[in-house]
Amino acid sequence: MADIAVQTKGQTPSVEGATKPANALDARLSALSLPQGGFALARRDALSRLQDMGLPGSRDEYWRYTDPRPFNAPEATALPVPQEQATPLFETLDRLTLVFVDGVFDEAASDDLALEGVEITTLAKADEANWAADLYGRLEAAGQNPVRRPFATLNTAAAQDGLLIRVTGKPSKPIHVVHRRASDNADAIWHHVIRVEAGAELTLLETGMSGARSNSVIEVDLAEGAAFHHVASKRAVDSRVGIGHIFARVAAKAQFKSFTLSVNGTVMRNEAVIDIAGDDAVAHIAAAVLGDGGKAPFHQDDTVFITHGAERCESRQVFKKVLKNGAQGVFQGKILVKPGAQKTDGYQISQALLLDERSQFLAKPELEIYADDVKCSHGSTTGAIDDEALFYLRSRGVPRERAIVFLVLSFLADALAEIEDEAIRDCIYERLDVWLTLNAVQ
Amino acid sequence: MLKIDNLHVKLEEEDKQILKGLSLEIPAGQVHAIMGPNGSGKSTLSYVLSGRDGYEVTEGSATLDGQSLLDMEPEQRASAGLFLAFQYPVEIPGVGNMTFLRTAVNAQRKARGEAELSSGDFLKLVRAKAAELQISPEMLKRPVNVGFSGGEKKRNEILQMAMLEPRMCIMDETDSGLDVDAMRLVSDGVNALRSPDRSFLVITHYQRLLNHIQPDVVHIMANGRIVKSGGPELALQVEEEGYGDLLAEAG
Ligand SMILES: Nc1ncnc2c1ncn2[C@@H]1O[C@H](COP(=O)(O)OP(=O)(O)OP(=O)(O)O)[C@@H](O)[C@H]1O
Ligand SMILES: [Mg+2]
User: Fold this and answer.
1) 3-state SS class at A30
2) C-alpha–C-alpha distance, residues A148 and B206, integer Å
3) Could you tell me the residue range of the domain that residue A405 belongs to?
4) Interval A134-182: pLDDT, tens
5) Distance from the CA of A426 to the CA of which of A17, A295, A405, B216 falls in 20 to 30 A?
6) Is residue A6 part of a domain?
């Protein structure tokens, strides 16, 4: 068993109850009730892979900007379940609502698992005969190169529940996963597997928070000409910590599009590993982040790895972070263009709007290109509110706070534009407006 | 209505005096024009009056209807009835023209204790006024000033002015960049707003605009001060002779 020394780092918020023992992984594993049900083979494989790789330490380059200790800690730091549960979102849309409480599917609170063109089962009830048995953990395992993502592997080994969704048609409405919290110290671990068959389409909406600490994995396997749209809205009303991974494999002519809105929380890391494997495929990933370090420290990290392995494919990364009261935002984004992936069109932008001088944005954009006929660009900027625009709005009578809300929305616009469906985009805009107005900057 | 007395303004960041004892009074219902060489401080005057950051008033006063403007926030000045049509209107991507305009109209109404306009009433009003200025419904939907041509931006400023119905309108080179037809549209828009209890301060380099919007008084500004005031004939004189003799005469 690997001995991992976990050391302290000064730059990220310290978290009570962080691990000290040398055998952090042992401590971490003993706190999990292994094995969980379903897909025993894949879980056993994940456990042995995890034991080989260990948990990240402070010298891990991949964790340079974010302190892994909150995720290494054996137990979640208890947080009282807030009075204010996530207010319903997407209520105006026709959708199939599936509820998870602290990472576990709540059948009674959910719609029936029935949607035309879609087959849905839950991970907790799945057996080896399930279509997803072969797929569970496979994209996660493939996504361990060239960097280790041990928390995703831990998830595969220990996930309590999740959805196994196989799409064969074009369902009439989106699937909406609603997360809720019930217990103060739940360590929620869930894992979805989504397979969209050739020419089929799915829109997945996600809202709310599970657990005092959460660890999620979504594996998305897109067959030729399939389309997958993902829109997530995650607002923490407390100082919770969470890590999430999306692993996607995109076949020829398929489309993968994911947008996440993250608001507050203490330490949040979202990783996306996208393998563009077939010609003429498209992968877009975007995020809008609002971080307020006022009540609790805020540290949010987006880490993206996109591999172009085929010809004439397009990828876009659009990340926008609005940070205030000493909040920290991180973006690590990489585009890898493999030999032969000609006519690749890769675009990446990461931008932060700092609402005060104590907030900080750390960006590490990377391009690695092994084909000669490609178009790739990346950019990263950090800026403040534009005084001229602020004055323009105020000179028309718009109060300062409202003018700043406008300018924040203006800053986020490019990320929000990545949401293709207008009705869904409107819901997100409306919600953002409410949150921004509630949190108006003085 | 607007009374500026011995106004001295320097830049906050550096020791540079821009307005050097400027005095000006515009009674209700009148149109005054300011002409003056580049860099004489015309835009600075309009910014200081509307409350932009970065300037320090070292002496003097400016009042609107007897109320001191200089202590108010920009949005308070707007609600008090002051409006500045910018020399360079600002682009704000991602914020719809209509949303912005409705927020501005209703914020001002609220600040004055008036009822807010319903979206239906607002829509009717803005469509009618936009049509008069030949601003297409498609332009109304676009983000504020984004992708607008120079002339379209200026027309959009006048649309905002028409919607906000200010009592004191300052227009900073609204005519620059306008083609002949747009100049007429903008002038008609301004003339339609003329009324006994609304005043205008029109900053311009060209006499031509003043053929359309007839001023009561023309001021010549140089080096941070009004150096000469007169009737519309002063503008004709500037057009024909330039500033040389005028400034020499003023010393
Ligand atoms: N923020 C600033 N920093 C430095 N100099 C400034 C600033 N604002 C104004 N000035 C200077 O003050 C002077 C007056 O500028 P202002 O823009 O008011 O002139 P103007 O009369 O409007 O000129 P124009 O006719 O070219 O529009 C100029 O010399 C300008 O360079
Ligand atoms: Mg000027």
Assistant:
1) helix
2) 68
3) 11-438
4) 999 999 999 998 899 999 999 999 999 999 999 999 999 999 999 998 9
5) A295
6) no
